[in-house]
Design goal:
The complex is a heterodimer of chains A (481) and B (205). Chain A has 481 residues and is an alpha+beta fold. Helices cover 18% and strands 40% of the residues of chain A. Chain A has 2 domains: 2-194, Rossmann fold (3-Layer(aba) Sandwich), CATH 3.40.50; 203-473, 6 Propeller (Neuraminidase). Chain A is built from 5 helices and 30 strands. In chain A, helix 3 (87-103) crosses helix 5 (178-194). In chain B, strands 1-4-2-3 form a 4-stranded mixed beta sheet. In chain B, helix 4 links the parallel strand 2 (119-125) and strand 3 (160-166). Classes of the chains: A alpha+beta (481), B alpha+beta (205). The interface between A and B is large, with 40 and 31 residues.
């Protein structure tokens, strides 16, 4: 959708600068496209059950294209200006914000406009209205001491007024905190418009094999920049999980011939510590923090049974099993209120892993994934949305082909939606907005870290051509550099 | 120089004179033979020498046989070590022991019974399909199912540890069915008693 629109806009923009008024309405193009999409959605939804029977193999589950939001408002980014030395970085700041707003999937963004669209200090609302913009972002970068300040305004083009404005300190681009400071402005703009914070000021952790045949943890900014390795150990690190504060990451690691243990990495100091193992022979994997950060849940698997344990991080004690002995459970994830845990289980057979939900201190579990006796099914890697309404996991729709699925927790039947349709897709992890999901995508071109927007179904590739695994999206890093 | 040139002819002349002086007819030999005592002694000596030669040869044969036995045992121990380390393979998404794996495990059982000090780590591995977290669990079950099998033949559980590497460290990094079949496996590492491996006795004692 957005690609063609932006190209259309580029053509119009050139005509605009040459001769006013523009002949073609950008907005009309957008409306037509939106209408076409609506029809396509209706057709796909109507024919989904019939198609599902022939093509897909989850019995009784109708999978179809069904997006909550089929169109998003247009937002224009007026070319940023600068003064007191700020002009030098104005276009760099503007480019980061434009891309962040595009990645938010909440707008059709018109950015990278010709510099003479900056005009003077006044905003010509009629011009922007003609161009189809509903929102307009302006920015002026001012030199301030060692760094800069960004003065930004959000204009409501329809009602012709400044809706919000703010002044944000931005370090010099040579400083490590520069990009994150700009991302925070993007998140503020999203919040001004939608009331929900954006997720530009976040990072995604994941595991990846190194050339020395170890596996280490890496971090990448939400926009794919700033990729870097954060562990340096002789082991195989897997399944990172962020603490709610964003200060530390828990993960499983196999060191030599010692079964997997749970480690914690303090991101500020780089110091690693091991969570005391429950048994000497069992492997411990898939950690998850409770939303208050006081408890760590993880899997203890001795080969005979696999139980979910909790560990008291505040008192550094009191590891206890919260699932019973004869079961084979793993991969816990907390509900945002901390009262429940979704997890992966082999209770229905070791080759048909399913997703269940139970109270956070153990107890009766209820099936979430669409299991029907004798019909197989493979659902793993659950992650509970920070909004609480959805649980994401991945499943084999056809044998050997994995897709990202979300189950609706508000709906008694746990209505299931499929979010990916191409290649293989594994290990979903929610962004703090409860709207975006990072996952490992396998395509013809290779493996990559990808993001899907649950609301629009838009896909984007954050890191391409790398064999990433078990991604974990950070909480909002609004306060961290 | 002058002294040497002069000395050589004089010495030769002296040798000629000496030789001429010893030339006499030899006396007729006395008609003597070995006495019976001497003959008995020679026979005894000869028998003793033959016995000594025999015992040396016997000792050599014994040493050779010993060396051969030691070599055979070393070969048998090496073969036993190889058998202990021989990996077993699994079907896709399964941790059941296949018939071909059972044959291999039976050979391990015989060696482990004869070698009570030997301890093993059983390492479970998977192919790359499926999630990594699921595969860690699957590898653990593959290691455990072999441990359970070995314990079923009366071997103490204290002799085995298990570890899962999931889909890490594939034997064959290719992305095809042959590679996957190679990678779905248990490996065996001798963690104690590597110098106390006894091959299974074949004669029954």
């Amino acid at each position: 959708m957005t690609g063609p629109m932006r190209r259309t806009w580029g053509g119009v923009a050139k005509r605009v600068t040459g001769a006013w008024p523009p002949a073609a309405g950008w907005r009309a193009t957008g409306r037509k496209a939106a209408a076409t999409l609506a029809v396509a959605v209706a057709l796909a939804t109507a024919s989904a059950p019939a198609a599902a029977q022939g093509r897909d193999s989850i019995p009784g589950v109708a999978l179809g294209l069904l997006y909550a939001t089929s169109s998003v408002p247009a937002l224009a980014v007026k070319p940023f200006t600068g003064r007191f030395g700020g002009a030098a970085i104005a276009s760099q700041v503007e480019a980061i914000i434009g891309r962040d707003l595009h990645n938010s999937d909440r707008f059709d963004v018109m950015d990278s406009l010709p510099a003479d669209m900056a005009g003077g200090g006044q905003v010509d609302y009629q011009l922007w209205d003609h161009l189809g913009a509903v929102w307009l972002v302006t920015g002026q970068v001012e030199g301030a001491g060692d760094g800069f300040e960004l003065v930004t305004e959000l204009h409501d083009v329809v009602y012709e007024h400044v809706k919000e404005q703010g002044r944000f300190p931005i370090p010099d681009p040579s400083q490590p905190g520069f990009r994150m400071a700009v991302h925070r402005v993007s998140d503020q703009i999203v919040k001004w418009v939608t009331g929900d914070p954006g997720v530009a000021a976040t990072r995604i952790a994941f595991a990846m094999a190194t050339s020395d045949s170890t596996k280490q943890l890496y971090l990448v900014d939400s926009d794919g920049e700033n990729l870097r390795r954060i562990t340096n150990d002789p082991g195989l690190d897997l399944s990172p999980a962020w603490s709610p504060s964003g200060d530390s990451i828990a993960y499983g690691s196999i060191r030599g011939t010692t079964p997997s243990r749970i480690y914690m990495l303090d991101l500020a100091t780089g110091k690693e510590s091991m969570v005391p193992p429950v048994g000497h022979d069992a492997m411990e994997t898939t950690p998850a923090f409770s939303p208050d950060g006081h408890t760590l849940a993880f899997t203890v698997d001795n080969g005979r049974t696999s139980r979910i344990y909790t560990y008291d991080l505040q008192h550094k004690c009191c590891a206890k099993a919260i699932t019973d002995g004869r079961y084979y459970d793993l991969a816990p994830t907390y509900s945002p209120d901390g009262k429940r845990i979704a997890f992966n289980t082999m209770r229905f057979g070791t080759t048909v892993p399913q997703i269940m939900v139970m109270p956070a201190d153990g107890g009766e579990a209820q099936l979430l994934s669409p299991y029907q006796y004798g019909n197989g099914g493979y659902y793993t890697s659950p992650d509970w949305s920070p909004r609480g309404d959805l649980i994401a996991f991945h499943g084999a729709i056809r044998a050997g082909t994995y897709h990202i699925l979300v189950a609706d927790m508000k709906d008694a039947g746990h209505k299931l939606r499929q979010l990916t349709w191409e290649g293989n897709n594994e290990d979903p992890s929610w962004a703090p907005d409860g709207r975006h999901i990072a996952f490992v995508g396998e395509r013809r071109w290779g493996f990559g870290l990808m993001v899907v927007d649950v609301a629009t179904g838009r896909l984007r590739t954050v890191v391409a051509g790398m064999r990433v695994s078990t991604p974990a999206w950070s909480p909002s890093l609004g306060g961290a550099p | 120089m002058i002294v040497r040139r002069f000395a050589v002819p004089v010495l030769a002349a002296m040798l000629v004179v000496a030789a001429c002086g010893k030339k006499q007819p030899p006396p007729p030999p006395a008609p003597t033979g070995p006495t019976p005592e001497e003959l008995a002694q020679r026979r005894a000596d000869s028998i003793a020498a033959a016995r000594r030669a025999d015992s040396i040869a016997a000792a050599r044969r014994e040493a050779e046989a010993k060396a051969a036995a030691a070599a055979a045992r070393a070969r048998a121990v090496a073969a036993a070590r190889t058998t202990l380390q021989e990996m077993v393979h699994f079907d896709f998404d399964k941790s059941d022991i296949r018939p071909d794996a059972e044959a291999i495990l039976q050979r391990k059982v015989a060696i482990l019974r004869a070698s009570p000090d030997v301890q093993l780590q059983i390492q479970g591995y998977c192919d790359e399909r499926g999630s990594e977290e699921y595969n860690l669990a699957l590898g653990q079950r593959r290691a455990e199912s072999v441990r359970k099998y070995l314990e079923g033949f009366g071997l103490s559980d204290s002799r085995f540890t298990i570890i899962s590497y999931g889909e890490e460290r594939p034997l064959d990094p290719a992305h095809n069915e042959d590679a996957w079949a190679q990678n779905r496996r248990d490996q065996f590492v001798i963690t104690a008693g590597a110098n106390a491996i006894n091959p299974p006795s074949t004669s029954g004692n």
